[in-house]
């Protein structure tokens, strides 16, 4: 016999479990106990996260949904007594959560990486991703996902999420990313959040949408482009912002609109996601704000199986007719409560009476041409209306724009089928002023000396010994004079642009660089020069171009011809992959030693590759099936 206790609002209750038995709270025999017969809370009535600007106080009236500047100084928490209660004492919040160099951040849920509250050299607390592959040698997860942390409420719908970002120094594959309407599919952010904006440290950016039913590492690319690399150079703060207003998604970098996308099958709800590469990356001033004219969250969110509430009265909730099958067997982790109701034929209907401005049906509904007839308050709302192509916990059908009050909605299957995972009630429309969060621009002076930015060009080298204050910085004169920090010289990892193309230093002493990325995806021809020059910190440097980086021209679909310079010794993997119009590659180098996997996969199938008579035999061995070479291609002298 096993005995235990349950600690609740009204006291401590004992229970016993017989051998070879299982007991749940809802299956306890409570016939002789008055304490257990009080009404249990109804699922859909749980308080949604809606705070003020501090993130500490619930406030449904202002323009914030949530905010966090990660400055927890002065906050305290009760001390646990180890017996299910408190000692009556309090301790410092940061100390109780791990200390100044690695405290747990409030309300965050980390999927990969290590996002912790970190006290910088300036005394400012930030959210820092602390798995740095270069420094620690670690940084890959079991599921191959990059660092991701989540915050917020999956019932959030229409909102703007903004966060400030800083790369501490140059690093391989460095980027920052923010996502909205996150419900989960994979641990990779571009296919985890409904929509996400990814910005690389060379200024290039991509707007993604999650793929339905896919656990791919990447979502669907909606738009891409680039901003001046000086805006995101290591050591400089910049802001990422995503706005979801109904089916329109807007992406901003430093408060400048870079992309707008209108989705015919929108993902309508979910949390905020924050991500980056496996390098030291700082985040600050997270702000999630409401959008005027839109409901910021669901008023109610209930499982498909809640046909009555959890009170003793068993008040009616969802009403199904007899043309449904319902199951909680063999459902995936992204199915809400791991249960689903499926229609079994035309005429299957579900009815719900609620208080709100609309209703949404959520659940996995692969596009099969299914349609529904809808009644609202006894009147026809839509006939033969198409279902949306929806993933788990995403909207398959929406009734919106109703007056805020009580309504009864009936949805009947007219053709095809309907899967119901959850029902969500759209809440009140926010009609007050919006809040715009100003980007935290400027350089960071609190970086450890070994982590100084190594990616500064002559156009963006800041005077980091006398920085300009950010908007949030104090304006009083400092009591001590800041100590000058030595500006780094050009070294390995330093990147720059010449005529729009990006280069990165591979060996400073040997003065070599790699051609990192084409100027843009629409170029029609390119020439890899033998040498390039750049002016940095008042000095002109000359470098030999000895490498073409991985994916340097990948996806350049209009590229027709390329000349490879005389100093190139290696071509990275997928360097020209999917450049489907590439018909001519001229190789001037006589010292080429390596061609990476899939380097020319997907180029024109009859492309000509010329290299000169002396190297023809040797280079035929380098360009083989593993590189993407096809027999229809023509190697020439």
Instruction: Return residue spans where pLDDT drops below 50 for at least 5 consecutive residues.
Output: 449-488
Number of extended strands: 45
Helicity range: under 10%
Mean pLDDT level: 86
Give a verbal description of the structure:
By secondary structure, the chain is mainly beta. It has four domains: 2-38, no CATH class; 64-70 and 105-290, Jelly Rolls (Sandwich), CATH 2.60.120; 299-426, Galactose-binding domain-like (Jelly Rolls, Sandwich), CATH 2.60.120; 489-636, Alpha-Beta Horseshoe (Leucine-rich repeat, LRR (right-handed beta-alpha superhelix)). It is 2% helix and 39% strand. The protein has three helices and 45 strands. The strands form nine sheets. Strands 3, 6, 8, 9, 11, 16, 17, 18, 20 and 33 form a ten-stranded antiparallel β-sheet that branches. Strands 7-10-19-12-13-14-15 form a seven-stranded antiparallel β-sheet, with no helix packed on it. It is globular, with a radius of gyration of 29 Å. The relative contact order is 0.09. Residues 449-488 have low confidence and may be disordered.
């Amino acid at each position: 016999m096993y005995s235990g206790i349950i600690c609740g609002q009204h006291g401590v209750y004992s229970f016993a479990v017989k051998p070879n038995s299982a007991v749940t709270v809802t299956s306890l025999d409570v016939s002789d106990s008055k304490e257990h017969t009080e009404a249990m809370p109804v699922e859909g009535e749980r308080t949604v996260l809606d705070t003020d600007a501090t993130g500490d106080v619930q406030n449904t009236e202002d323009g914030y949904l949530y905010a966090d500047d990660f400055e927890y100084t002065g906050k305290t928490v009760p001390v646990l007594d180890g017996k299910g209660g408190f000692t009556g004492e309090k301790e410092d919040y940061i100390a109780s959560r791990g200390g100044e160099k690695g405290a747990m951040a409030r309300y965050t849920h980390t999927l990969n990486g290590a996002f912790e509250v970190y006290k910088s050299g300036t005394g400012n607390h930030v959210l820092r991703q602390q798995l740095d592959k270069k420094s620690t040698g670690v940084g890959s997860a079991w599921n191959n996902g990059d660092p991701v942390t989540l915050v917020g409420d999956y019932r959030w719908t229409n909102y703007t999420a903004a966060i400030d970002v800083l790369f501490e120094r140059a690093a391989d594959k460095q980027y920052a990313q923010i996502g909205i309407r996150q419900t989960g599919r994979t641990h990779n952010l571009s296919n985890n959040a409904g929509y996400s904006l990814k910005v690389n440290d060379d200024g290039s950016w991509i707007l993604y949408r999650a793929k339905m039913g896919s656990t791919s590492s990447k979502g669907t690319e909606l738009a891409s482009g680039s901003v001046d690399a000086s805006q995101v150079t290591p050591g400089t703060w910049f802001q990422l912002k995503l706005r979801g207003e109904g089916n329109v998604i807007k992406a901003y970098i430093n408060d400048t609109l870079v992309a707008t996308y209108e989705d015919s099958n929108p993902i309508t709800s979910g949390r905020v996601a924050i991500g980056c590469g496996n390098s030291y990356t700082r985040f600050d001033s997270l702000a999630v704000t409401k959008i005027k004219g839109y409901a910021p969250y669901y008023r109610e969110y209930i499982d498909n199986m809640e046909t009555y509430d959890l009170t003793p009265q068993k008040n009616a909730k969802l009403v199904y007719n007899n043309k449904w099958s319902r199951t909680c067997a063999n459902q995936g982790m992204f199915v809400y409560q791991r249960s689903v109701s499926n229609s079994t034929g035309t005429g299957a209907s579900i009815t719900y009476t609620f208080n709100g401005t609309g209703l949404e049906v959520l659940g996995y509904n692969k596009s099969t041409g299914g349609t529904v007839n809808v009644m609202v308050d006894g009147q026809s709302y839509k006939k033969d209306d198409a279902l949306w192509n929806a993933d788990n916990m995403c909207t398959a059908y929406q009734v919106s724009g109703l007056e805020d009050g009580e309504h009864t909605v009936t949805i009947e299957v007219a053709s095809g089928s309907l899967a119901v995972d959850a029902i969500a009630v759209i809440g009140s429309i926010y009609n007050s002023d919006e809040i715009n969060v100003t980007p935290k621009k400027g350089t960071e002076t609190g970086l450890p000396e070994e982590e100084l930015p190594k990616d500064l060009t002559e156009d963006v080298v800041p005077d980091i010994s006398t920085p300009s204050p950010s908007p949030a910085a104090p304006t009083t004169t400092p009591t001590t004079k800041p100590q000058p920090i030595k500006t780094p010289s050009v070294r390995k990892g330093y990147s720059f642009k010449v005529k729009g193309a990006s280069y990165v230093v591979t060996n400073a002493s040997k003065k070599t660089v790699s051609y990192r990325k084409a100027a843009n995806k629409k170029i029609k021809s390119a020439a890899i020069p033998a040498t390039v020059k750049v002016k940095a910190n008042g000095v002109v440097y000359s470098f030999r171009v000895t490498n073409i980086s991985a994916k340097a021209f990948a996806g350049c679909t209009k590229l027709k011809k390329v000349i490879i310079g005389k100093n190139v010794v290696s071509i990275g993997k997928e360097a020209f992959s999917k450049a489907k119009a590439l018909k001519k590659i001229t190789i001037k180098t006589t010292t080429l030693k390596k061609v990476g996997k899939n380097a020319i996969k997907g180029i024109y199938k009859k492309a000509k590759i010329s290299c000169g008579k002396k190297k023809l035999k040797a280079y035929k061995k380098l360009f083989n099936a593993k590189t993407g070479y096809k027999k229809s291609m023509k190697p020439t002298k």
